[in-house]
Specification:
322 residues, 8-stranded mixed beta sheet, 9 helices, globular
């Protein structure tokens, strides 16, 4: 910090971004919560958890991989607009865009959906850019570490996962396309395959092969396979698809948003499918969370949710590595 002014600048930029995010939520009547980091069941994302031991109860616990389950239980309890900015832990690889310990933002709003959360996310990011670098509204252009400029302004591009994959392959891919056909395509293209596979995983791997590191301008990729999105509501008009988007900026994923699944019967079916994948060897699959299912049974309103890595937001605003 003493010898590198850029390090001190990052401290100030990060503080300004976090303040901007909080003030934006407060203007929208959101309430900030802090939920448990030590959990009996890991859930809310597809990720490999860290484990630890609690001496007081002589039991194994997980460091949380996401805040989703507890925040949605708060929505059931009557906190209609809620967010949290806090640490998550994922026991996976490390590179310039992945850290095992990172700060995440998650937010949930009753009576919204993934369309509303996309608008919220765009505004959060654009306002953070203005506040961190003293920019005017409509001029959300930041200067990156390599001297280039990046424009966060205006409306952002959207694309459909299935439509864009079909276009790249030159053949129609739908939720009914078989695992065998998708696997043959993956083998032909040399796409890496998981030990435990399903339709959704193969579709996402194929899509990433063509697009993941090529989406430079801010782009919402919409409507994902149901198999890879166990906590997301089914699409209102497209069978086999869920109402989920991922936001890509400068070639990597920055944020995600859902129309939240609030049907306890369907949620149990999704958890059971995940548990079967876990038994088959999928280390990222989540367990059956009976407390969460009980909360959904009490009654959760329709809701939208979003999540974003704060470290990655700093990356896209500054051009630095994680």
């Amino acid at each position: 910090l003493i010898t590198r002014p850029a390090a001190r600048d990052m401290v100030r930029i990060r503080a300004a971004v976090n303040r901007s995010l909080r003030e934006n939520f407060f203007r929208r009547d959101y309430i900030e919560l802090e939920t448990p980091m030590l959990q009996m069941i890991h859930g809310g994302a597809a990720a490999r958890p860290f484990t630890t031991h609690m001496n007081a109860l002589d039991t194994e616990l997980y460091l949380r991989i996401a805040t989703e389950i507890y925040l949605k239980r708060a929505v059931v309890g009557g906190v209609d607009r809620v967010f949290e900015i806090n640490r998550n832990f994922r026991n996976e690889g490390m590179d310039s865009s992945h850290s095992p310990e990172f700060t995440a933002l998650e937010a949930y709003e009753a009576y919204s959906d993934y369309n509303g959360m996309a608008e919220l996310t765009r505004d959060l990011i654009q306002q953070a850019a203005r506040d961190a670098f003293d920019l005017s509204e409509g001029e959300e252009i930041v200067r990156l570490a390599d001297g280039t400029e990046y424009d966060f302004g205006g409306e952002w591009k959207t694309m459909s996962m299935y439509d864009s994959l079909s276009e790249a392959l030159g053949q129609q891919i739908t939720p009914e396309t078989s695992v065998e056909e998708l696997g043959a395509i993956a083998d032909r293209l040399g796409v890496e395959r998981d030990e435990v596979e399903n339709h959704g995983k193969l579709v996402e791997h194929l899509w990433e092969h063509f697009y993941e590191d090529k989406l430079y301008e801010p782009t919402f990729v919409r409507d994902f396979p149901v198999e890879t999105s166990p906590l997301v509501k089914a699409h209102r008009s497209k069978p086999g698809v869920v109402e989920k988007w991922d936001l890509y900026v400068r070639g990597f994923e920055l944020a995600t948003g859902y129309s939240e699944l609030n049907d306890p019967i369907v949620q149990r079916e999704r958890f059971v499918a995940q548990a079967k994948d876990a038994l088959a060897g999928d280390e990222e699959a989540c367990d059956i969370d009976e407390d969460f299912l009980e909360a959904l049974g009490v009654g959760m309103p329709p809701a939208g949710g979003m999540g974003m890595g704060i470290d990655r937001l700093l990356m896209v605003l500054t051009g630095q590595g994680i």
